[in-house]
């Protein structure tokens, strides 16, 4: 299961709907099954009570956007008694100490972080910065 990133954007195209043509042709994800209208963000369940949400860092995410409205509905539909684990994946990290990538995910963080807090999301995984970093000790 994958989510798009900045390297998947075909920058020579102006229309956002067409800027992920190669990604959408190669990586058809189960977005319709999760109620999403876009292959760029979706969710799925994994055995053992895990709900995984793949968010699109490189598509509209602001309040009122299709992705934002979908995320609200997706989070609201989770039964935490049956699904104790909720994991989110984004491409651009909302927090990092890499000087070259400071603030890359800030707009998305401002738009969506509170939704994840309220839903008690357990873990968020991010990519984009080609270096390992964690915020909490593993022991």
From TrEMBL:
<protein>
    <recommendedName>
        <fullName>acid phosphatase</fullName>
        <ecNumber>3.1.3.2</ecNumber>
    </recommendedName>
</protein>
<dbReference type="InterPro" id="IPR004843">
    <property type="entry name" value="Calcineurin-like_PHP"/>
</dbReference>
<keyword id="KW-0732">Signal</keyword>
<dbReference type="Pfam" id="PF00149">
    <property type="entry name" value="Metallophos"/>
</dbReference>
<dbReference type="InterPro" id="IPR029052">
    <property type="entry name" value="Metallo-depent_PP-like"/>
</dbReference>
<feature type="domain" description="Calcineurin-like phosphoesterase">
    <location>
        <begin position="2"/>
        <end position="132"/>
    </location>
</feature>
<dbReference type="InterPro" id="IPR039331">
    <property type="entry name" value="PAPs-like"/>
</dbReference>
<dbReference type="GO" id="GO:0003993">
    <property type="term" value="F:acid phosphatase activity"/>
</dbReference>
